[in-house]
Amino acid sequence: MRLCPPLLLFLTSLSQLREWCTCLSLRPQSPSSFHHNSRRNPWRRAGRSNILPQQQQQPQPRTRHNSVSLEDGDEMTTTTTTISIGTNDTDTTTTTIPFLDIELPETSMRRHYNWREFVPRNTSLIQAVRWMVTGKTTLSTTSFVVSDAKLQRNLAALARTLLLLRVYEAKFGLPTNTGGPAVQRQVLSDITKDLYSSGAPIWVLEAVMERVAEGMTGRTGVQYMLLPNRCFIFYPATNTTTMTDQQQQHSSSATDMFKVMPGFYIARLGAVEQVAVRLASFASNTKSVERLHPEAIRTPRRDELVNIQNQETQAMIDDDKTLMDKSAADLSREILNLASSTYGLFFYLNNPQFQAALSTDNTTANGDSTETDPVHQFWTVSNTTQELFSRLATAEAARSLEQIHGKETILYSPTAIALFRMLSAAGACAMWFGGSFSDMVASAILSILVPYVETFRTLAAEERFLTEVVASFGVGLIAGLLALQWPDRFCFGAIAVASVMDLLQGFKVVYAAIEVMSRHVVAGAGRLLEGILFTGLISYSLKSGLDFAFRLMLGSADTLTRDYSSMLVSVHGIRECFFPLILPFAAVAWSGLFRPSYVDLPLMAFHGMLAFGLTWAGAPLFMAAAAVTLSAGIISRFTGREALGNTLAGLYALVPGTYMVRALLSSSRSDFLERVLVTAATIGLGSWAGTILCSPTMVGKTSGWFSRRQRGSDIKKQ
């Protein structure tokens, strides 16, 4: 009977693989061109103008609309990715964020990592394997070079960004009521809180937020340190342009400390991730947090800079009337989208290769000094222009976060969440703890008791454990009464443990083990200790409820000393042939408890089925955890979507919280702590092994063991 269910799971995985292949199918090749959004219909792109040499330009004036976006690939790439810009039309029914086309229920559909930009071409097998592991090529190789056509397209967009910034500065001046240093620090704090409370791991969050701070402020020295429930951000000293546009104001270094709370909210993670990735792209040479290797981009020649400068200057003259009619919001939208889709402004400023193209020689071919050279003046960014761009980016991010928090769509109603809890508890009772159909019904009903008791948490906001202890005691009491009254139908262990799955700290312990291995010892040790102690408290509450049930039913003191191990195993468990029917519903249910977007739910359920199928077939916990993270990494690599949701859903069946409770409720509890640590370390090491084989994409960055080790060398080269 064990051969048939794995076969069904294998066929299910094949159907999912077919859908992935369909999603990964290449689009037809299109010529290199700019794409513009039409005012009349923002969802249809029209009005494209090719980048041609100046002598080939048509005499008629060119009209540029709200924004410009560039293709991702060069002439060797067969796919085209266009950034769609949101509108401020009042007749739209979809909740969008200003400037960004973020639809909150469908956030994860955006690609924050384009593997075609990073894959090495015409190289050895070792380099291909290295890219598969890390997501990027780290060794210097002449075969990994951005084409001249793509380099010129990006430089043309950068030139137009500089021109638009100067037009904005001359027309509207520096914003005085938003985007300042105080708002910048608040935005960085809010993004950190939202990402951490939505499930972003510490070993990813610190590296991503450093790049976000660089993209928003232009500073490279912002540092983060995350502790249990606390975050510190260090801001180095800098010079800031004053409102008079004539003076520089020196600001000393500062450190912010604020409270952070871990949690899991996959849908919000996808929404805030877009804001973070967009800010990080301003300091990157791609549309994501990751950067191309320094040797991938050659230094532009002077003649290229001159040609691009002349072309974009003439295009700006032709668009003078259109620019005068644009509002500050429209102009800011075009500036930020150009900077996000191509070489970011701060990547250009902080990259020595680009700056070397302007200061290779002290004099030009005509004998002019570089300070008076028109080319040098055009491509040199003043402090005022830097401050203007930083304030525009900050203002956009602040409005985006405000709309995420204020107009966030409720994806799942309370009824849907209650249904997810019931199906998840029933599935856990049957498949993990060997419960019967009666146990499934009882655990599903008792799982509703836990959130009902937690509604009284407002009466004791600072005593969170009180309500959860009461809920655990109630579950233990009712499950004990059922098991004592009808011992042939109900099993206390299957009902009680499955009903309190939401209260167990299994994910906290697994995260703690991985954090310790990623050298975040303080945060990891704190979460590990909290998870162990809190799970022990829940399990003792369950046993206290069972003891009270003994007193109510039997009324004899000597019955309290009986062995509880006989009540932990059901003798009337359902047959394994029903598992393939129960597993899909249970996997969707426990995936929905993480509150993902609708498009993420099928893949999350698949990873849950994968993890349970492997353990059911007899695979060790290490292999099952490694398979889950490896699959999540591969999918995120080729789709650019977040890997965290798939990882969490897959590890749901492997978390040590269930093992901790069953070990503590058993008669032999001398090796309880040993079981906890061994199980957590096994799952953590397995999860870490999967990320070594293929670094997953989290918050727009490929994050694995090799990626973390090579981060220091990449920073030195960049």
TrEMBL record:
Keywords: Membrane, Signal, Transmembrane, Transmembrane helix. The keyword Manganese does not apply. Pfam families: ThrE (PF06738). Residues 1-23 form the signal peptide. The keyword Signal applies. GO terms for molecular function: transmembrane transporter activity. Residues 77-90 have a biased composition (Low complexity). It comes from the Eukaryota. Residues 391-542 form the Threonine/serine exporter-like N-terminal domain. Residues 51-90 are annotated as: Disordered. The chain crosses the membrane at residues 430-453, 465-486, 492-514, 577-594, 614-635, 647-665, 677-699. Belongs to the ThrE exporter (TC 2.A.79) family. This is Threonine/serine exporter-like N-terminal domain-containing protein. It comes from Amphora coffeiformis. The lineage of its organism: Eukaryota, Sar, Stramenopiles, Ochrophyta, Bacillariophyta.
